[in-house]
Amino acid sequence: MSGDSQDPLASWPQAYKDELKANEFNPCVGHFLLSETDRVRVWSLSLQPGERVGFHRHVLDYFWTVLNDGKALSHYNDGRIVEATYKAGDTKHMSYGKGEFMIHDLHNIGDNVLSFTTVEFLDSANAPLPVPDHVRRG
């Protein structure tokens, strides 16, 4: 029974726990917001080998497509730590109901640059989080 009350983040380094808390409402699901209309946001994310993008929150329905082969490791707000292998063109669609969300990071643990394009749908069940100007590309 003791496992039921255990902190799901117990095995994480304290720095990751602190970062998760500090970024629980970070809307930047990529490095750069390439385009935004009244319907979609299009993001670009590119990680060099060993590079990591910190915790960010997904609240909108979205999909990502990976542009090249690679490997990554992600920590999720529910305590999961997941390693993934990607092939160029892999695409995944995600959807969130009212009040649902996901927070995670992404660490390139492969030998190649790992690049994604992510498209968020603004007409989702949840309101979009405000995006800071410094990530917008004009």
Number of strands: 9
Largest sheet report: 5 strands, antiparallel
Secondary-structure element string: HEEEEEEEEE
> Which architecture per CATH?
Sandwich
N-end to C-end Cα span = 54 Å
Tally of distinct domains: 1
CATH domain class name: Mainly Beta
Per the principal axes of the C-alpha atoms, what is the gross shape?
globular
CATH fold-level topology: Jelly Rolls
Overall description:
The chain is 7% helix and 41% strand. It is mainly beta. It has one domain: Sandwich (Jelly Rolls). The strands form two sheets. Strands 1-2-9-4-7 form a five-stranded antiparallel β-sheet, with no helix packed on it. It has a four-stranded antiparallel β-sheet with strand order 3-8-5-6, with no helix packed on it. It is globular, with a radius of gyration of 15 Å. The termini are far apart.
Notable traits:
138 residues; Jelly Rolls; 4-stranded antiparallel β-sheet; 1 helix; 5-stranded antiparallel β-sheet; mainly beta; 7% helix
Short description:
This protein has 138 residues and is mainly β.
How would you summarize the topology of this molecule?
Layout (H helix, E strand, L loop, with lengths): L13 H9 L9 E5 L3 E8 L4 E7 L2 E6 L3 E6 L5 E6 L4 E4 L7 E7 L5 E8 L17
Antiparallel strand pairs: 1-2, 2-9, 3-8, 4-7, 4-9, 5-6, 5-8
